């Protein structure tokens, strides 16, 4: 942790293999590497740990089954029976974000979920998908979503504008929440970590704080993946059942 | 902030799409159906075992009921057997008691008869002896041999009077 490094240095995208496809820069970066690592880790847990088809699961298989049941329950609780087709999508989002967050906790690693480009892309895909589902299910009736039943007609203009704004800011709030949480946590760790060596013997104080904050960051890594996933479920539920 | 470096957006988004799709396919086509199948299979096995356990429990309950029933029957039988035996024994003992009583009373009667006979024999013996003594005494005293009949009647009247006197 050299003093010359800024706390933001850890978020820098470093191109490992430059690739150009047409007008687009598709270079293989540290971000790409950690995305692939997350996919590999998630696959290792969900596919390879489940190999033994024993009636009594081992530890890793138990973890995989736990993840399955956790998301399956989340989907059925918040969407209901109609949520079944979206279960693989919701599950993939959870695993992708969760492993991105957790692997990012390793020292010298990179947290791809701390980048707005990644979270906003995911949030926009979810937003477009949800809007598409809503139109496919309800056609033009979908617009009644912006005026909840039982609202006095006087309040209609106000309600409609509020609902429209809240609907269209969903991808922003969804993506900024995740990226800001991850970025803030990692920046805090880096800043506090920077105090340890210069303070000499008194460095144990920030060191203790660092340990505590690291524990907290693990909680946040899980919690943000959970929040991202359950909000996706809630949006899908809104699209299927309107209000 | 590196997050707002727009030139770094496109590689991130492209790799995000690629890796996310790969993960989606792996989860949707391989991992989730497999785990779902395992969980379903296990649930089916658990349900099956629970069913078996329920059946066995029902069976054992029926068995216990049958046991209770046969127990109660046996108890009833034992009670009636004891009752019968008691009845029989009491009848038997009553009969024996009666037999013994009648035999004893018969023997008593016979004994009494024998006593009466002996008494009568003794009394007549005494009368005869008294008669001969009286006749001899009368002969010696007055020299007249009294008639046999007169002596007997006198003796018996005196005897009867003494018997009446003594009660």
Write the layout of secondary structure elements.
The complex is a heterodimer of chains A (243) and B (167).
Chain A: E1 15-17, E2 20-21, E3 24-25, E4 28-29, H1 30-48, H2 59-78, H3 87-104, H4 116-138, H5 156-168, H6 170-196, H7 204-241
Antiparallel strand pairs in A: 1-4, 2-3
Chain B: H1 9-142, H2 148-166
Helix pairs in contact in B: 1-2
Descriptive labels:
heterodimer, A: 243 residues, mainly alpha, two-stranded antiparallel sheet, 7 helices, globular, B: 167 residues, 2 helices, 0% strand
Query: What is the domain tally of chain B?
Result: 1
- Structural class estimated from helices and strands of chain B: mainly alpha
Shape of chain B: rod-shaped
Distance between the termini of chain A: 51 Å
Note the beta-strand portion of chain A: under 5%
- SSE run of chain B: HH
Query: In angstroms, what separates the terminal alpha carbons of chain B?
Result: 157 Å
In terms of per-residue confidence, which ranges of chain A show pLDDT below 50 for 5 or more consecutive residues?
none
Task: Report on this structure.
- The complex is a heterodimer of chains A (243) and B (167).
- With 243 residues, chain A is mainly α.
- Chain A has one domain.
- Chain A has a two-stranded antiparallel sheet.
- In chain B, helix 1 crosses helix 2.
- Chain B is mainly alpha-helical.
- Chain B is built from 2 helices and no strands.
- Chain B starts with 8 loop residues before the first helix and ends with a helix.
- Chain B is rod-shaped, with a radius of gyration of 63 Å.
- The interface between A and B is large, with 48 and 35 residues.
Could you give a quick summary of the protein structure above?
The complex is a heterodimer of chains A (243) and B (167). With 243 residues, chain A is mainly alpha-helical. Chain A has one domain.
